[in-house]
Amino acid sequence: MKLFQLSIISAFLLTIVGCASKQAAERDQAMFDELVNRHHSEIDLCFQNEAKQNPQLGEGSLMIRADHLPNGEFSNIRKLKSFPGSDAVFDCIASIMKDWKTERPYTRGPVDLTWKFEKNG
Fold first, then answer.
1. For 80, left (φ over 0), alpha (ψ -120 to 50), or beta?
2. Which domain CATH number covers 26?
3. The pTM is what?
């Protein structure tokens, strides 16, 4: 029986390079959305594992920002918003994101991800 529900609220690129075309930004967004969807079950496990170890784990939104580098890797992964007890969930997600790599992006800059974790009653 699943003890919680995970839904991605948003994942979007914050384009710093102002000269990037709309098509390039849309291509990068699609590439990034596919990457997040491919790793959805791993993100789900981060919350499941912590919920088993910590019955007091809260529920809520976790927002993460990461820099998308020119080589397609992610660095400087940081927490922007959290909920009670979510530090271990963030650490788990950050360790997964360190292994993510995309094709060379057309745009560069921070990427914001927001996940909502809810316990099923």
1. alpha
2. 3.30.2420.10
3. 0.76
